[in-house]
Every structure is written in structure tokens, then in C-alpha cells.
């Protein structure tokens, strides 16, 4: 599949596309082919972007009402929709994901993010409290929302447009200007978004895009810039910790969505077929490269053997292939580097004593895909909960399935993790679902479903999985300074 993006992907600073001295390769993980050259922003370019964002706050953007900003964000959504197929092709080329997923999830959500946050910001209310005073006249408190200022946004490669716009849309809806750095692995849809911003008439400097890597590159330069007021990041937990240190001296506001080692729990009373289908989705969607994926599956002992057999049958039947092949279920991983990491865990699992129920290696196609970053979807059993493969985030199409005997036991095992992002429970007993869901120490619990998203709800994790919440009014809270005004009557 040929990307529709240009052969040279440039930075977008102060309303202009700008080049750079250094470039890096953008590689298609399906076959290792070169998609484009990407301009790597140096420190001066990042600082120019931050300065342009600061200036934009003083210009027409800063004078717009929230309704005018919302109308502009709807124009951005319209612009993505008008170039839908280009966005899909660019996302597929960068990531190798099934075309259908890019259509129904990635790009559709990019559009929805702009529409949702435009509407939420335009309709948001603020607090008001009447209070009594000693003189009997009283006082009135009310809050106003103001933009934070310049927001730095650093996003990952696993859901490139979806996760970038999840932050850009509310930041702009709240009146901020942004400097966004997408992942070096997936720069194409972000560059298309810059074109859409320009064409929608978003004033210069409001949306800036800088390409590059993390350490010693655009990512680090952005976190070190004194000109940003807040930093929002999605990616690996260790990177979150590095970024936190970088912004600590300036006491910048941060919002972090980080890694996970999420569990799925299947009780014996679950709708068996629904649970099997649900765990297939939660473990193998996007080749397991979603922070919400389940890499630990706990199944109540009476149905354990049957469940493992059913998962094995489904995994063996998954179609791995080209993104645009009919009925394809899984594409490659994002890169050879990430594949090396995942294959390292495949080897480690055997050393740790796992039974490999399915997969465990690299598929062979006999064509260009053998130069790609594919791995087999993989299922293990037989590991202790202390195994590294059961405790560390792998971020690949893999799960370990273990039996359990009692509710208290499984709650303790699920909670015995350094991470706390998401959990999926499968049971037909609603009382149990409610009871267990409250006891699981994570930010997100799904019952009899997985990754069903209402964009108005709180999203984020606890422990190593993140800091703060985004989504709905939580995003409006993060991307705004809330000031209280107290009027003595
Ligand atoms: N949402 C999630 O939970 C994600 C988890 N991961 C995990 O992280 C592992 C490493 O993947 P990466 O792409 O390297 O993730 P990463 O967390 O290093 O990269 C995410 C973003 O942060 C930037 N970045 C990296 N180091 C930085 C630094 N020091 N300062 C500022 N920005 C920095 C990157 O350029 C990219 O834009 C993966 O194998 C996977 O396990 C990766 C992507 C998303
Ligand atoms: O907002 C969503 O729907 C998905 C979020 C997924 C992540 O944050 C992730 O995979 O990192």
C-alpha cells in the first residue's frame, strides 16, 4: 500500500512547513520499505515552535470565544473527514495495521476527538457557590476557566492519530496553543493533520508540529523548554518518569497515560463464547499494541482447560497478513526494534518454564513480508505470577492464561502488579461484577466487554500506569486553569 503522505515530512512551525538539517527514515513495518524521509527538529526549531505558540495566544486565537474555537475544531474534523482515505493510507503505511481498523478505529476516532471536545468545551458549565457572611449580605463564588498557555504534547506510535488528537483537541478547545511531537515511528498522520489545521484556518502558531526522537532530540528539547506551561504524554512508564524529572524544576502541570500489565478475569459463570471472543480482542487487537490490552488472563478453574483450548483454536485461526487483505486480523509490530523486544520475551517465557500453547515465533510468508516486523500471536500457560513475562509490559500479541479458585484470590493476584491501568471482568453475576470491579486497583474496569469507549468518561491509570485523568470534563480540567472569583455582596 502506497502512503498518500509526501516523501519529505516536514515540521510545522508558526503556520509554515519547515525543513531541517537532519532527516531520518520512516519505515513500513510490513516489508521494511522506505515510506518517507522525516525532518528532525533541532532545539532551535522546537524553541521557535514554542515561541510561535506563545505569540499565538496574544493573537486572534486568544480573542476567540469558546463557541468560535469549537466551530473551528469542527472544521478540522471536517477536514480530516474530507481526506479520510489519505489519513487511512498514511496510518496503515506507518503501522501496518489492518485497513479496516484504521478506518473504523484510528481515523474515525481522530474525527470524533475533535467533535467531542469542541462540543464539550462549548457546553461546559462552571461552579457557583453562594455563601453566608457575618454581615448577612453574603458572597458569591464562581469559577472561570482560562487556557493553561502553551501545551507540549508527546504521543506514541501505537494509535498515532487517535492518541495525538485525544490531546490536541481538548487542548485547543480550552484555548491553548500546542507544540506536538508525534512518535518517530508514525509521523505521517500528524503531518497530514498540520495541513488540515492550515486549511481549516486555524491561526498560525496555534498548532505546531515538531518531528524527532525522544532523548537528545525533539522530545527531550520540548520537555526542557522553559516556554511550555504543561506537558501531556502517552507512552512507556520509564519515559514518563524521565519527562517528569525534566519538567520538575519548572513545576509544570503533567498528565501521563503510561503502560499496563492488564488482566482479564473470566469467572466460570461467564457467557463462555462471549468471554473467549472478548479475550481474543483484548489480547490481540492491534497486535497487542494498545496500553489497554490484556496480557494476563485469569480463568476460574472449572472452565480453565476448555477456555485455553478455545483460545488456542481461535489464535491458530487468526489471519496474519497485508493490511489490505480481506479478512486480515493482525498486521506486524511497529518496528524491528520492537519485534526484538517482543521476541526477547518469547525466549524468556520458555526459560521461565512456560508451556507455549500457540505461536511463540515469527511467521514465514515467502514474500516481502519476511522483511517486515511480524510475530505470531502467542499464548502461554504454566508460569508463576512472579515470572517476568507475567509482570512486565510486553506490548505484543501475547497473553498468559492462569487458573484461579476464588474471588479474593484473583482480586489479590490482579492487584499484585506495579501497573494499574485496565481490567476486563467476564461474569453473568452482576453483584459479583460490581463487587470485584470496585476492588480492582486500576483506572478502568470493563465488565463483559473491553475497550468500549465513551469519550465523556475519565480515562487513565494508577501506579506506574499514569498520573491524572483525561476524557470529558477531566480533559477540560487538565487543559484549563480554573480560577475562583469571590464577590462580596
Ligand atoms: N501507550 C503505551 O502504553 C505505550 C507503551 N509503549 C511501550 O514502550 C516501549 C518503548 O516504545 P517507545 O516508542 O520507545 O515508547 P516511548 O515511551 O519511549 O515513546 C513515546 C513517545 O515519547 C517520546 N520520547 C521518548 N523518550 C523521550 C524523552 N526522554 N523525552 C521526551 N520524549 C521522549 C518518543 O519519541 C515518542 O514520541 C514499547 O516497547 C512499549 O512496550 C510504547 C508506546 C505506547
Ligand atoms: O483513548 C483511547 O481510546 C485509547 C487509548 C489508548 C492508549 O492510551 C494507549 O494505547 O496508549
UniProtKB/TrEMBL annotation:
InterPro entries: Ald_DH/histidinol_DH, Ald_DH_C, Ald_DH_CS_CYS, Ald_DH_CS_GLU, Ald_DH_N, Aldehyde_DH_dom, OHmuconic_semiald_DH
Classification via CDD domains: ALDH_F8_HMSADH
Residues covered by the Aldehyde dehydrogenase domain: 22-483
Keywords: NAD, Oxidoreductase
Molecular function per GO: oxidoreductase activity, acting on the aldehyde or oxo group of donors, NAD or NADP as acceptor
Record EC number: 1.2.1.85
Pfam short name (any one): Aldedh
PROSITE patterns referenced in this protein's UniProt entry, alphabetically: ALDEHYDE_DEHYDR_CYS, ALDEHYDE_DEHYDR_GLU
Annotated catalytic residues: 257
Stated family: Belongs to the aldehyde dehydrogenase family.
Name of the protein: 2-hydroxymuconic semialdehyde dehydrogenase
Gene source species: Pseudoduganella aquatica
Lineage of the organism: Bacteria, Pseudomonadati, Pseudomonadota, Betaproteobacteria, Burkholderiales
Amino acid at each position: 500500500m502506497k502512503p498518500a503522505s509526501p516523501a519529505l515530512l516536514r515540521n510545522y512551525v508558526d503556520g509554515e512547513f519547515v525543513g531541517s538539517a537532519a532527516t531520518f527514515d520512516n519505515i513500513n513495518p510490513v516489508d521494511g520499505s522506505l515510506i518517507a524521509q522525516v525532518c528532525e527538529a533541532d532545539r532551535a526549531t522546537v524553541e521557535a515552535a514554542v515561541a510561535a505558540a506563545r505569540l499565538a495566544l496574544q493573537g486572534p486565537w486568544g480573542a476567540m470565544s469558546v463557541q468560535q474555537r469549537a466551530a473551528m475544531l469542527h472544521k478540522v474534523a471536517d477536514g480530516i473527514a474530507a481526506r479520510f482515505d489519505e489519513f487511512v493510507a498514511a496510518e496503515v503505511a506507518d503501522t501496518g495495521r489492518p485497513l479496516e481498523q484504521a478506518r473504523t478505529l484510528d481515523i474515525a476516532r481522530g474525527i470524533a476527538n475533535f467533535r467531542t471536545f469542541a462540543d464539550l468545551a462549548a457546553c461546559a458549565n462552571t461552579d457557583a457557590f453562594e455563601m453566608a457572611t457575618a454581615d448577612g449580605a453574603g458572597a458569591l463564588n464562581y469559577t472561570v476557566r482560562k487556557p493553561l498557555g502553551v501545551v507540549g504534547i508527546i504521543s506514541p506510535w501505537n494509535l498515532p492519530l487517535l492518541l495525538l488528537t485525544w490531546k490536541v483537541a481538548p487542548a485547543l478547545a480550552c484555548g491553548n496553543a500546542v507544540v506536538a511531537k508525534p512518535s518517530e515511528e508514525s509521523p505521517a498522520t500528524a503531518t497530514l493533520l498540520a495541513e488540515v489545521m492550515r486549511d481549516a484556518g486555524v491561526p498560525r502558531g496555534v498548532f505546531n508540529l515538531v518531528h524527532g526522537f525522544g532523548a537528545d532530540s525533539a522530545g527531550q528539547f520540548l520537555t526542557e523548554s522553559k516556554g511550555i506551561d504543561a506537558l501531556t504524554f502517552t507512552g512507556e512508564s520509564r519515559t514518563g518518569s524521565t519527562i517528569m524529572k525534566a519538567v520538575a524544576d519548572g513545576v509544570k502541570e503533567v498528565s501521563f497515560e503510561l503502560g499496563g500489565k492488564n488482566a482479564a478475569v473470566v469467572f466460570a459463570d461467564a457467557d463462555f463464547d462471549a468471554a473467549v471472543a472478548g479475550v481474543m480482542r483484548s489480547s490481540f487487537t492491534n497486535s497487542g499494541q494498545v496500553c489497554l490490552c490484556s496480557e494476563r488472563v485469569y480463568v476460574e478453574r472449572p472452565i480453565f482447560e476448555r477456555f485455553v483450548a478455545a483460545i488456542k483454536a481461535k489464535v491458530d485461526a487468526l489471519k496474519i497478513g497485508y493490511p489490505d487483505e480481506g479478512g486480515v486480523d493482525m498486521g506486524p509490530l511497529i518496528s524491528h526494534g520492537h519485534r526484538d523486544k517482543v521476541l526477547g520475551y518469547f525466549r524468556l517465557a520458555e526459560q521461565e518454564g512456560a508451556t507455549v500453547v500457540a505461536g511463540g515465533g515469527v511467521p514465514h510468508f515467502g514474500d516481502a513480508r519476511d522483511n517486515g516486523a511480524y510475530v505470531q500471536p502467542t499464548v502461554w500457560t504454566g508460569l508463576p505470577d512472579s515470572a517476568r513475562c507475567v509482570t512486565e509490559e510486553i506490548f505484543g500479541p501475547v497473553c498468559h492464561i492462569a487458573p484461579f479458585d476464588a474471588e479474593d484470590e484473583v482480586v489479590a493476584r490482579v492487584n499484585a502488579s506495579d501497573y494499574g491501568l485496565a481490567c476486563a471482568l467476564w461474569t453473568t453475576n452482576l453483584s459479583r461484577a460490581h463487587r470485584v470491579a470496585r476492588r480492582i486497583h486500576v483506572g478502568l474496569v470493563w465488565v463483559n466487554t473491553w475497550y468500549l469507549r465513551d469519550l465523556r468518561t475519565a480515562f487513565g491509570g494508577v501506579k506506574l500506569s499514569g498520573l491524572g485523568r483525561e476524557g470529558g470534563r477531566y480533559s477540560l480540567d487538565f487543559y484549563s486553569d480554573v480560577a475562583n472569583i469571590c464577590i462580596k455582596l
